[in-house]
Specification:
OB fold (Dihydrolipoamide Acetyltransferase, E2P), elongated, 346 residues, 26% helix, 9 helices, Rossmann fold, 2 domains, alpha+beta, six-stranded mixed β-sheet
Length: 346
């Protein structure tokens, strides 16, 4: 399987006199898995379609390896794309769907049959050549759509939310299968998703987008623990913010706000001076299956914590958050590095 690096330089797109993407710069290493992540309308699918050649650029350049593909039509770019709807042809069998891209390229019938059989084995669907695609499950259709993209040996694989039409259990299973397949092939892959968990589990690097711009490019661990700003943090599940107090841990000297996730907040635990501590009145107690989510109101703040046992509304409780779970932000809502790194910068 061939593979190539991808480089985007100053990619800008205007559609119907509206700017959809602006000044996009991105380097994708060969053989890596990159997720374009962001809310609906942020421009991630438009960017994927631009790479595939379906959406023209207003400005900028796209390079695959050493060659520019900016002005090439989709069929000349040698990329392969799996659409959200899978786009399988219902009047064709599984084998005919898989072999059609090879037929368009003039591959002989015998060679097509050999490649189709090999791809079906790789997708763990051996013997399905004659089956109608309408008889397949959602997970099987997803595999056939992926196999049809890979059968032409593309240097770049583009995935437009390929798992979004599946139920949760199948989606979790196929995440692992898709990632294993990508690693075994070593193919450069870019996937669009709005699912934070999906991106964190699958990607080597995540491109977080908002309003047609790239907010942050980082490995999953960095993005999760050091989001670029407060809006990015909230998108990534940081559902609590509190104003800094003088008694709080000194992990960032100029922090004005701390963010943390509900699951990291301890309630009515033995108090520890190295933790952020807040006392509040319980306003709601909701059973979540593996415990209870407790909502609390304190002076000028509302926040949540988890508890193994229910706590009655109206009760006062103490919430503590470990220093390692706190994410500091400045007065401009930008993420701040830890105190030791701030001193290094100074």
């Amino acid at each position: 399987m061939s593979t190539e690096a991808l480089t985007l330089n100053d990619v800008t797109i205007d559609l119907r006199q509206k700017r959809i993407l602006e000044n996009i710069h991105l380097d994708v290493a060969p053989g890596s898995f990159t997720c374009l992540l962001g809310p609906s309308g942020c421009g991630k699918t438009t960017l994927l379609r631009a790479i595939a050649g379906f959406t023209p650029l207003s400005r900028g350049d796209i390079r695959l390896g050493k060659r520019s593909i900016t002005h090439l039509p989709p069929e000349k770019r040698q990329t392969a794309m799996v659409f959200q709807s899978y786009a399988l042809w219902p009047h064709m069998s599984v084998g005919e769907n898989l072999g059609y891209p090879l037929k368009l390229r003039g591959v002989s019938r015998e060679e097509r049959a050999r490649k189709v059989a090999a791809m079906l084995e790789r997708m763990e669907l051996g013997g399905f050549e004659s089956r109608a695609v309408t008889q397949l499950s959602g997970g099987q259709r997803q595999r056939i759509a992926l196999g049809r993209a890979l059968i032409i040996d593309p240097p770049l694989l583009l995935l437009d939310e390929p798992l979004s039409n599946l139920d949760a259990a199948i989606r979790r299973s196929l995440r692992s299968e898709l990632r294993r397949l990508q690693k075994s092939l070593g193919i450069t892959t870019i996937m669009v998703t709005h699912d934070q968990e999906e991106a964190l589990q699958m990607a080597d690097q995540i491109v977080l987008m908002r309003g047609g711009h790239i907010v942050q490019i980082a490995p999953p661990q960095t993005l999760y623990h050091q989001p670029a700003d407060l809006a990015a943090a909230r998108f990534l599940g940081v559902d609590n913010t509190v104003t800094r107090q003088t008694s709080d841990p000194a992990i960032a000297s100029t922090a004005s706000t701390f963010g943390f996730r509900t699951r990291d907040a301890l309630i009515n635990a033995p108090q520890h001076p190295a933790m952020l501590t807040r006392k509040g009145r319980v306003t709601e107690c909701v059973y979540t299956g593996d415990g209870y989510q407790i909502s609390l109101a304190a002076e000028r703040a509302e926040f949540c914590a988890t508890s193994a046992t229910p706590i009655a509304p109206g009760t006062f409780a103490v919430v503590q958050v470990p220093q390692s779970a706190l994410i500091p932000f400045g007065s401009d809502d930008r993420h701040l590095p830890p105190l030791d790194r701030q001193e290094d910068i100074a």
